[in-house]
Amino acid sequence: DGGITQSPKYLFRKEGQNVTLSCEQNLNHDAMYWYRQDPGQGLRLIYYSQIVNDFQKGDIAEGYSVSREKKESFPLTVTSAQKNPTAFYLCASSISGRELFFGEGSRLTVL
Amino acid sequence: KQEVTQIPAALSVPEGENLVLNCSFTDSAIYNLQWFRQDPGKGLTSLLLIQSSQREQTSGRLNASLDKSSGRSTLYIAASQPGDSATYLCAVPYQGAQKLVFGQGTRLTINP
């Protein structure tokens, strides 16, 4: 089935560690996005990419990094510089400017 | 700057009722508006996408309307069922249609 796969579903991180969240899509979409969701704050855009080997910062990019080496993959690294990384992370994709589709999310908890 | 507001934040109704969820946005120069559903601990599921040239879009028991001039959209749910219980979010593009700004959602509970 076509869709967006995020892994892992749950992840625990110690202080000072970098972690990478995976996002893979087989929808042949050009654009991919990472959002962060916190209770009471809605969804906030971290990074987005419209084509391979190119990406732009969203509203809250500090402490995060991404790569887009393949059209179907857009991994997000949460670095130790992110001071409050505990959140629900959502990956999405679209044909640029059109309907947005989401993965099932990854919940990151800092111990 | 585009801002999206959804009121009420939570709504509880008995099964079988028809209901309306509201979404308002500050900048009427939008390309489209999208409604999503989110179940607890899950990702967002796209329900309806309304293009700026459309006034309505329907899918099954769901009907979404768009009034750009007043900066409003409504999601109408007919004959509500307990399985409709979820958080409903609306979103509009900004900064060249490549990004979406989301409302904070309406948490809907349908009581059997």
Summarize the structure.
By secondary structure, chain A is mainly β.
What is the strand and helix layout of this fold?
The complex is a heterodimer of chains A (111) and B (112).
Chain A: E1 4-7, E2 10-13, E3 19-25, E4 31-38, E5 42-51, E6 54-57, E7 64-66, E8 76-78, E9 87-94, E10 101-102, E11 106-110
Parallel strand pairs in A: 2-11
Antiparallel strand pairs in A: 1-3, 3-8, 4-5, 4-9, 5-6, 7-8, 9-10, 9-11
Chain B: E1 4-5, E2 10-14, E3 19-25, E4 32-38, E5 44-51, E6 56-59, E7 62-67, E8 72-77, E9 86-94, E10 99-102, E11 106-111
Parallel strand pairs in B: 2-11
Antiparallel strand pairs in B: 1-3, 3-8, 4-5, 4-9, 6-7, 7-8, 9-10, 9-11
Gyration radius of chain B (Cα, Å) is 13 Å
Structural class of chain A: mainly beta
**Number of helical segments of chain A?**
0
The most extensive interface, with participating residues per chain, is: A-B, 26 and 22 residues
How far the N terminus sits from the C terminus of chain B, by CA atoms, comes to 41 Å
**In percent terms, what proportion of residues of chain B is strand?**
over 45%
- Care to count the β-strands of chain A? 11
Oligomer: heterodimer
Could you list the spans of chain A in which at least 5 consecutive residues all have pLDDT below 50?
Answer: none
* Helix run count of chain B: 0
What is the H/E string of chain A?
EEEEEEEEEEE
* Cα-based radius of gyration of chain A, to the nearest Å: 13 Å
Measured between the Cα atoms of the first and last residue of chain A, the distance is 35 Å
The number of strands of chain B is 11
Strand content of chain A is over 45%
Shape of chain B: globular
Task: Please characterize this protein's 3D structure.
The complex is a heterodimer of chains A (111) and B (112). Chain A has 111 residues and is mostly beta strands. Chain A has no helices and 11 strands. Chain A has strands spanning 4-7, 10-13, 19-25, 31-38, 42-51, 54-57, 64-66, 76-78, 87-94, 101-102, 106-110. In chain A, strands 2, 4, 5, 6, 9, 10 and 11 form a 7-stranded mixed β-sheet that branches. In chain A, strands 1-3-8-7 form a 4-stranded antiparallel β-sheet, with no helix packed on it. Chain A is globular and about 35 Å long. With 112 residues, chain B is mainly β. Helix content of chain B is 0%, strand content 57%. Chain B contains no helices and 11 strands. In chain B, the strands form 2 sheets. In chain B, strands 2, 4, 5, 9, 10 and 11 form a 6-stranded mixed β-sheet that branches. A 5-stranded antiparallel β-sheet of chain B has the order 1-3-8-7-6, with no helix packed on it. The model of chain B has no long low-confidence stretch (mean pLDDT 94). Chains A and B meet through strand 5, strand 9 and strand 10 of A and strand 4, strand 5, strand 9 and strand 10 of B.
